[in-house]
From TrEMBL:
Domain of life: Bacteria
Xref: NCBIfam families: sigma70-ECF
One Pfam family recorded for the sequence: Sigma70_r4_2
Signal peptide: none
InterPro entries: DUF6596, RNA_pol_sigma-70_dom, RNA_pol_sigma70_r2, RNA_pol_sigma70_r4_t2, RNA_pol_sigma_r2, RNA_pol_sigma_r3/r4-like, WH-like_DNA-bd_sf
Domain RNA polymerase sigma-70 region: 21-79
Cross-referenced Gene3D superfamilies: 1.10.1740.10, Winged helix-like DNA-binding domain superfamily/Winged helix DNA-binding domain (1.10.10.10)
Name of protein: RNA polymerase sigma factor (Sigma-70 family)
Lineage: Bacteria, Pseudomonadati, Pseudomonadota, Gammaproteobacteria, Lysobacterales
Length: 426
């Protein structure tokens, strides 16, 4: 394997293993910032050694062992409690005692999931909401600062500052590495749900890179969502989020072509949709609805996804119902992005002119100034109205805004199609 291939493998391993690595270290050290630092140290060692020695059979375990050794060195240098030192040594040297300690830890916490502990720790009320979400995406999603910034539609330095300050605040406040209970659990649930969905979205439509999707992130978000649903089965919004992710994840195989190119929703082969995931999603949505009360934002989005899932063909989609659901969602959780999605639904239900009218009211929204989907949607509506030159300009602008190579290629191809069609008609 070449050095380049090894580095690519290391990057892939890091994407998969970093969250578990940081979470495991944080459980032992009770310091999220130090855990991330040691995990990064282990990554540097891998970059130095693996090109010469090869990638180990179990790269995740290798990284954890390396990080633990560094943790021991750090504990020795800082003269921390000998008990902590011995705990780490036991994990490295005594497999039987390690298994016992894991069982004992599970008895102390009814979830027994390091990643979930890390998520609730990062979402502690000592941090502002934005900082909680940014830190958790960084630690559990393995996302770069730039990727998180694009997810938030804010400048990258802003996110970087939030993450640094958040880690300092957790350390200063000595926030315990645990899952909260009772009223505190309910209070922190909303930000946790937001984090899980942002992680899922980054996997579902990658903001940057050469790939349209990053399925490992979707799978991790789904796993965390399912654990949460088991923990709080009477929370409709948890069930709604799980339903939404299950249904969206069902389209994974149909969302790319043979060469990895994106395939848009209305053009997907629905025979490739995963009916098992759809069934699970619809069942979760039904449980949320049976709990009664007004559906929250995630459950409403799940109801929209369910409209697509129930339609065997694109033409059979109940677009008037989707438009109505988006109108309800816009009242409950006002957002320019939701309004943009509502415009798409209106265009499908009542014609492109109706959608374009709403889109044009969003052109001066500061949050959408660099949001590539605004010119993408506008370009699509203009093309459907046969205003091809204007549509081409919008697609070209959208291509300059996206950081995803696959998406940029798709947008430029749509711009070329508009130009060619306009020439044929002239």
């Amino acid at each position: 394997m070449s050095v380049t291939d090894t580095h690519r493998t290391i990057d892939a391993v890091w994407r998969i293993e970093s969250a578990r690595l940081i979470a495991g270290l944080a459980r032992m050290l009770r310091d999220v910032g130090l855990a991330e630092e040691l995990a990064q140290d282990a990554l540097v060692v891998a970059l130095e050694q693996w090109p010469n020695t090869g990638v180990p059979d179990n790269p995740g375990a290798w990284l954890m062992t390396t990080a633990k050794h560094r943790a021991i060195d750090r504990l020795r240098r800082s003269k921390l409690l000998e008990r902590k030192h011995l705990e780490l040594m036991h994990e490295l040297e005594a497999e039987q005692e390690q298994q016992v300690s894991v069982v004992e830890a599970a008895l102390d916490d009814h979830i027994g999931d390091d990643l979930l502990r890390l998520m609730f720790t990062a979402c502690h009320p000592v941090l502002p909401i934005d900082a909680r979400v940014a830190l958790t995406l960084r630690l559990l999603g393995g996302l770069t600062t730039g990727e998180i910034a694009r997810a938030f539609l804010v400048p990258e330095p802003t996110i970087a500052q939030r993450i640094v300050r958040a880690k300092r605040s957790l350390t200063k406040a000595q926030v315990p590495f645990e899952v909260p209970r009772g009223e505190e659990l309910a209070a922190r649930l909303s930000s946790v749900l937001g984090v899980i969905y942002l992680i899922f979205n980054e996997g579902y439509s990658a903001t940057a890179g050469d790939d349209w999707m990053r399925p490992a992130l979707c799978e991790e978000a789904l796993r965390l969502g399912r654990v949460l649903a088991g923990l709080v089965p009477q929370e409709a919004e948890v069930l709604g989020l799980v339903a939404l992710m299950e249904i969206q994840a069902s389209r994974t195989r149909a969302r790319t072509g043979p060469g990895g190119e994106p395939v848009l929703l209305l053009e997907q082969n629905r025979a490739h949709w995963d009916r098992l995931l759809i069934g699970r999603g619809l069942a979760a949505l039904e449980r949320a609805e049976k709990l009664g009360g007004t559906l929250g934002p995630y459950a409403l989005q799940a109801a929209i996804a369910a409209c697509h899932a129930r339609a065997l063909t694109a033409e059979a989609t109940d677009w008037p119902r989707i438009a109505a659901l988006y109108a309800t969602l816009a009242q409950l959780a006002p957002s320019p992005v939701i309004e943009l999605n509502r415009a798409v639904a209106l265009s499908m239900a009542f014609g492109p002119a109706a959608g374009l009218e709403l889109v044009d009211t969003l052109l001066d929204e500061p949050a959408l100034a660099n949001y590539h989907l605004l010119p993408t949607v506008r370009g699509d509506l203009l093309a459907r109205l046969d205003r091809l030159d204007e549509a081409r300009t919008e697609f070209e602008r959208a291509a300059t805004l996206t950081q995803n190579l696959r998406e940029r290629e798709l947008l430029l191809e749509r711009a070329r199609t508009c130009a060619a069609t306009a020439r044929d008609k002239s």
